[in-house]
TrEMBL record, chain A:
Protein name, entry field: Dihydroorotate dehydrogenase
PANTHER family: DIHYDROOROTATE DEHYDROGENASE (FUMARATE), DIHYDROOROTATE DEHYDROGENASE (QUINONE), MITOCHONDRIAL-RELATED
Binding of substrate, residues: K45, N69, A70, V71, G72, L73, N126, N191, T192
UniProt pathway: Pyrimidine metabolism; UMP biosynthesis via de novo pathway; orotate from (S)-dihydroorotate (NAD(+) route): step 1/1
Domain Dihydroorotate dehydrogenase catalytic: 4-285
Keywords linked to the UniProt accession: Cytoplasm, Flavoprotein, FMN, Oxidoreductase, Pyrimidine biosynthesis
Family: Belongs to the dihydroorotate dehydrogenase family. Type 1 subfamily.
InterPro entries per the UniProt record, alphabetical: Aldolase_TIM, DHO_dehydrogenase, DHOD_1B, Dihydroorotate_DH_1, Dihydroorotate_DH_1_2, Dihydroorotate_DH_cat, Dihydroorotate_DH_CS, Dihydroorotate_DH_I
Protein source organism: Anaeromassilibacillus senegalensis
Underlying gene: pyrD
EC code: 1.3.-.-
Catalyzed reactions per annotation: (S)-dihydroorotate + NAD(+) = orotate + NADH + H(+); (S)-dihydroorotate + A = orotate + AH2
Pfam families: DHO_dh (PF01180)
Broad class of where this protein is predominantly found: cytoplasm
From TrEMBL, chain B:
Keywords carried by this UniProt record: 2Fe-2S, Electron transport, FAD, Flavoprotein, Iron, Iron-sulfur, Metal-binding, Pyrimidine biosynthesis, Transport
Binding site for [2Fe-2S] cluster: C214, C219, C222, C238
CDD domains associated with the record: DHOD_e_trans (cd06218)
Source organism: Anaeromassilibacillus senegalensis
Cofactor note: Binds 1 [2Fe-2S] cluster per subunit.
Quaternary organization: Heterotetramer of 2 PyrK and 2 PyrD type B subunits.
PROSITE patterns assigned: FAD_FR
The protein, known as: Dihydroorotate dehydrogenase B (NAD(+)), electron transfer subunit
Family of the protein in this entry: Belongs to the PyrK family.
Alphabetical list of PANTHER family matching this protein: DIHYDROOROTATE DEHYDROGENASE B (NAD(+)), ELECTRON TRANSFER SUBUNIT, DIHYDROOROTATE DEHYDROGENASE B (NAD(+)), ELECTRON TRANSFER SUBUNIT-RELATED
InterPro entries: Cyt_c3_hydrogenase_gsu, Dihydroorotate_DH_ele_sf, Dihydroorotate_DH_Fe-S-bd, Dihydroorotate_DHASE_ETsu, FAD-bd_FR_type, FNR_nucleotide-bd, PyrK_electron_transfer, Riboflavin_synthase-like_b-brl
Entry cofactors: [2Fe-2S] cluster; FAD
Gene label: pyrK
Domain FAD-binding FR-type: 3-100
Length: 303, 251
């Protein structure tokens, strides 16, 4: 029987599939389909220090091979998350990652302090939300920015710290190195690519925010390439995401160097995707004599 | 079960007006759970996003759901190509539907492709319902006979006067003082109906649409500004709606 357990920064996940932040809310809507323990973990909707209303509609636009979103970090704030959502999430038999976004280093540090005293498993530092002017992306697009925010949060954070990287940079592996050097325990990559769609009749962008984050199947080759480049540079584990829609995509991402995986947009196509991907991974492992899924991490043989 | 994904065989398909299609699918579990005014999220092969399509009618005995939709773009064009015997991949029933109180006098107001979601609820009211529906022209008039067959009084308006009253649906309802109004259609029509309801102190529910992704309230894509206790806040059409009390919505 294939062993799907993975260990990311000391946290054991019973399978490598984690629901990506922003696609899964706080889990309740998907619990109508299946027990959330089908997932190895859940990364929460991006949380901020104070509640945020989010952007005006439209927030969504379709694009070939994917979609754009600009939700704008609508969330009830970290205190609400801790008291109202976390206790329920904690009972679902899966690892819980708090995805936090902020406007200032102080915001991030204050949230990290609040979360230290909870039983979340990990913090995911969102410094790559492209959809709000001050949602952390200002920290995520330069090495100095990534270093600075990682260092600041690290000093306040007693939980395993994962830094989520933006692909909207010249060399994402340099950002990963910057995070690693300041004490990040893991990297998750990639966030959405900034994109735009225009309504040719009204001559306005379809999304009210003008631009949005592009996600979905078309992102996969870009994400696989970026994970591979980064895997060669950092020692800390990489949680790979970006366009994973099938078990074959999941295997590719693992081979490129990911230790665990996040899935997001595919959930909108097929809410049952986590079950199908996990079953496909297990069958692939059995067929290929892979005992532990960790054997696949970085096992690609480049030309 | 609140909602689920099912493959639903298409039992009937017809083009009932220009670019407007009428499908009935076998969906016993979904029909059993569905209520008038809810919607379905239908998978389109080759597309990332499902298409939210209102449930036009529910036959719990036959275990079927009916959808009437207009081809608006590439996604609905693909759905329109499905044939009898094919299956739609349907996530349903979603959202909150209309409040149905059949003993009351109800007015249903629909504009264009906003008409289909009214049928299921109107059927519960039968003779207690007046249905005022407006279309661009005669060629776009749909479901008039279905409402009549349910016993409703039907009034039709067209923009160009080619059928029924020449003008707006609002012109058809000014003499009416129902207990409740249920409306779906273009925003400009909904604003006018909500205003009419407010002036006459009538309970009014409106059904909205918005671009959406997950359909179940997780992604927060389909935002709508709602009136709350301390100012306005962003709700979501898929979960808080698609049917809202008119006074709740910032129109």
């Amino acid at each position: 029987m294939a062993d799907l357990h993975v260990n990311v920064a000391g946290v054991e996940f019973h399978n490598p599939l984690i629901a990506a932040s922003g696609t899964f809310g706080f889990g309740r809507e998907y619990a109508e389909f299946y027990p959330l323990s089908v997932l190895g973990g859940i990364s929460s909707k991006g949380i901020t220090l104070k509640a945020r209303p989010g952007n005006p509609a439209p927030r969504i636009a379709e694009a070939p091979g994917g979609m754009l979103n600009a939700v704008g970090l609508q969330n009830p704030g970290v205190d609400h998350f801790i008291t109202e959502d976390l206790p329920w999430l904690r009972e679902q038999g899966t690892r819980i990652i708090a995805n936090i976004a902020g406007n200032t280093p102080e915001d991030y540090c204050a949230m990290a302090e609040k979360l230290n005293d909870t039983d979340i498993d990990m913090i995911e530092l969102n410094i790559s939300c492209p959809n709000v002017k001050q949602g952390g992306v200002q920290f995520g697009t330069t090495c100095a920015g990534v270093s600075g925010i990682t260092k600041a949060v690290r000093a306040h954070c007693r939980k395993p710290l994962m830094v989520k990287l933006s692909p909207n940079v010249t060399d994402i592996s340099e950002m990963a190195l910057a995070a690693e050097s300041e004490g990040a325990d893991a990297i998750s990559m990639i966030n959405t690519l900034t994109g735009m769609r225009i309504d040719i009749n009204t001559k306005r962008p379809i999304i009210h925010n003008n631009t949005g984050g592009f996600s979905g199947p078309a992102l996969l080759p870009i994400a696989v390439r970026m994970v591979w480049q980064t895997y060669q540079k950092v020692k800390i584990p990489i949680v790979g995401l970006g366009g994973i829609s099938t078990w074959q995509d999941a295997v590719e991402m693992l081979l490129a160097g990911a230790t665990a995986l996040q899935i997001g947009t595919v959930l909108f196509i097929d809410p049952y995707a986590p079950i199908k991907i996990t079953e496909g991974l297990a069958a692939y492992m059995d067929k290929n004599g892979v005992k532990s899924i960790s054997e696949l991490t970085g096992a690609m043989k480049p030309w | 079960m609140k909602y689920d994904v099912k493959l639903c065989e298409i039992l009937r398909r017809a083009e009932i007006a220009e670019n407007t299609f009428d499908f009935t699918v076998r969906a016993p579990e979904l029909a059993a759970a569905a209520a008038p005014g809810q919607f379905a999220h239908i998978y389109v092969p080759g597309k990332t996003l499902r298409r939210p399509i209102s449930i036009c009618d529910i036959d719990k005995d036959a275990g079927t759901l009916r959808f009437v939709f207009q081809v608006r773009g590439g996604g609905t064009a693909e759905l329109a190509k499905f044939k009898v015997g094919d299956a739609f991949d349907i996530l349903a029933p979603l959202g909150h539907g209309f409040t149905v109180e059949p003993e009351k006098k109800a007015l249903f107001v629909g504009g264009g492709i906003g008409v289909p979601p009214l049928l299921g609820a109107a059927k519960h009211y039968g003779e207690n319902a007046t249905v005022a529906i407006g279309f661009r022209s005669r060629d776009f008039v749909i479901l008039e006979d279905d409402f009549k067959a349910a016993g409703c009084e039907v009034r039709v308006a067209t923009d160009d006067g080619s059928y029924g009253h020449h003008g707006l649906v609002l012109d058809l309802i000014r003499d009416l003082r129902p207990d409740v109004i249920h409306a779906c259609g273009p925003m400009v029509m909904l604003r006018a109906i909500a205003q009419f309801a407010k002036e006459n102190n009538i309970c009014c529910e409106i059904s909205l649409e918005e671009r959406m992704a997950c359909g179940i309230g997780a992604c927060l894509g389909c935002a709508v500004e709602l009136n709350g206790e301390d100012g306005t806040y962003m709700g979501h059409v898929c979960k808080d709606g698609p049917v809202f009390a008119a006074e709740r919505v910032v129109l």
